[in-house]
UniProtKB/TrEMBL annotation:
TM stretches of this protein: 7-30, 50-72, 79-96, 102-126, 138-161, 173-192, 254-277, 289-312, 319-342, 362-384, 405-421, 427-445
Natural source organism: Suillus subaureus
Pfam families reported for this sequence: Sugar_tr
Domain Major facilitator superfamily (MFS) profile intervals: 11-449
Family: Belongs to the major facilitator superfamily. Sugar transporter (TC 2.A.1.1) family.
Name the UniProt record assigns to this protein: General substrate transporter
């Protein structure tokens, strides 16, 4: 018989296939656009057109993520994920069969609508079904599958690049469509969020779900009482986007939006989307070598996510954000300094002189990916979700994800031109943004480790003096 903890992790792995879909796209889209077979059938993409194609998925994702709050509250968390998966399935099928570039753009926009819908709801769902002692670990399953998807995307694209003809670049899209079909087929069998059920007045169903998802039924009634009390205290009216920024909630709302926005300003997606460009600038002389170097970064991304998966509930939230931020910023500042000293531009192409500086840049890129993977990649999404009250969580997380997608869109759109225009500028910019975010975390972020979602609500209701003591603790 499957244990309760195992059941929760199985649910987490299946729903987090939404993250794996995102990872597959992130890992494969850069190599796809660098394939000769892609250029032969679709045409060569200039830097600005490449940025538009890669980034347009983020634009549609940002819009759908804002609507995801309504859908998650109206249809439920699980059907919010399912409907997003259906749209991703449609978009990837069109991508895999597209014959022209305009059709690829439309397909990518459709895929983004589904991605924004499903990923925005997964973290909410996982936080709400998990017992507090493993909530962080369960919620990190989403990031784990994103990293598995990224690494798989790199190597699937590398392997398919050896295929002759259009099937070379269509194969990654076919894989994504297959994964979306698996996600959709299983979501109807997932349980509802017990907090959503209580919010809808379906108390008996919520009790039944909690009894299946808790190791002991002894405290189910206590948890149910806490959930009901929290929702009653927040009022029985439906949540609105305006309420998120009322005086009582504005501090935590702004903190969540800030963290989700600045997570992307550390430059991680500039590395993941355009890794072949970065490694070519750092000295790799062939596309195939750059593809392999990109794949190594995907493996590092995956491996370094595992420690956070195991220990995030022991580390807490402040240590990974502050310590990880310092490490991330250091890596990019060093790379920026190396390009400032040894780099330059010739005939419009960025170069880096000397084998020593080239290998140092490559190593620090890998260290950057590792630093991000065990810290910001995992903790920011969890923290931004868990600090929001249950009644407001879906809509607040939708706004947070909107800000994340919009910043991500801006980075993805401008990164190719930025990387090819200024040798050191991108690294100094992203490093500075990371240092600023780290300082904000140090001074303004209370610890939430080991607290139930309802206890966290109380934490943000404390007086400013008490809050200061909590931050220090």
């Amino acid at each position: 018989m499957v244990s309760v903890t195992t059941r929760i992790y199985l649910i987490a792995f299946h729903t987090s296939l939404a993250g794996m879909l995102w990872g597959l796209d992130t890992g494969s889209i850069g190599p796809i656009t660098q394939m000769e077979q892609f250029s032969s059938s679709i045409g060569h993409l200039s830097s600005d057109i490449l940025g538009i194609y890669v980034a347009c998925i983020l634009l549609s994702a940002s819009l759908s993520s804002l609507c995801s709050g309504y859908i998650a509250d109206l249809l439920s968390r699980k059907y919010g994920i399912l409907t997003g998966g259906i749209i991703v399935l449609l978009g990837t099928i069109i991508s895999a069969s597209a014959k022209t570039f305009p059709v690829l753009i439309c397909a990518r926009l459709i895929t983004g609508i589904g991605q924004g819908q499903s990923i925005s709801v997964v973290t909410i769902y996982l936080c709400e079904i998990s017992p507090q002692e493993i909530r962080g670990t369960v919620a990190t399953v989403l990031q784990l599958l994103i990293t598995i998807g990224i690494a798989s995307g790199y190597f699937v694209a590398y392997a398919s690049s050896r295929i002759g003809g259009e099937l070379a670049w269509r194969t990654p899209f076919i894989l994504e469509a297959s994964m979306a079909a698996i996600l959709v087929s299983g979501m109807a069998f997932m349980p509802y969020s017990p907090r959503w059920l209580v919010q809808r007045g379906r108390i008996d169903e919520a009790r039944a779900v909690l009894q299946k998802l808790r190791a002991s039924n002894e405290f189910v009634e206590d948890e149910l009482r806490l959930i009901k009390g929290s929702l009653e205290e927040q009022s029985r009216e439906d949540a609105s986007y305006r309420e998120i920024f009322q005086k009582r909630y504005i501090r935590r709302s702004i903190l969540g939006v800030f963290l989700m926005s600045f997570q992307m300003l550390c430059g991680i997606d500039a590395v993941l989307y355009y890794a072949p460009i970065l490694f070519t600038q750092a000295g790799f002389t062939s596309n195939r070598a750059a593809f392999l170097a990109s794949g190594v970064s995907g493996i590092i991304n995956l491996i370094c996510t595992i420690p956070a998966q195991l220990w995030v509930d022991k580390w807490g939230r402040r240590f990974p954000l502050i310590g990880g931020g310092i490490s991330i910023a250091t890596c990019f500042m060093v790379i920026g300094a190396l390009y400032a000293i040894y780099g330059g531009k010739a005939d419009g192409v960025v170069y880096l002189s000397g084998k020593g500086p080239q290998w140092a840049v490559i190593i620090f890129i890998y260290m950057f990916v590792a630093s991000f993977s065990w810290s910001w990649a995992v903790v920011i999404k969890i923290y931004a979700c868990e600090i929001i009250p249950t009644r407001l969580r879906a809509k607040a997380c939708a706004v947070q994800q909107l800000s994340n997608w919009l910043v991500n869109f801006t980075v993805a759109l401008t990164a190719p031109l930025f990387l090819r225009t200024s040798p050191s500028g991108p690294y100094f910019f992203f490093g500075s943004a990371t240092l600023f975010t780290t300082a904000v975390c140090h001074f303004l972020m209370p610890e939430t480790k080991g607290k139930s979602l309802e206890e966290i609500e109380g934490l943000f209701e404390m007086t400013p003096r008490a809050m200061d003591h909590s931050v220090i603790a």
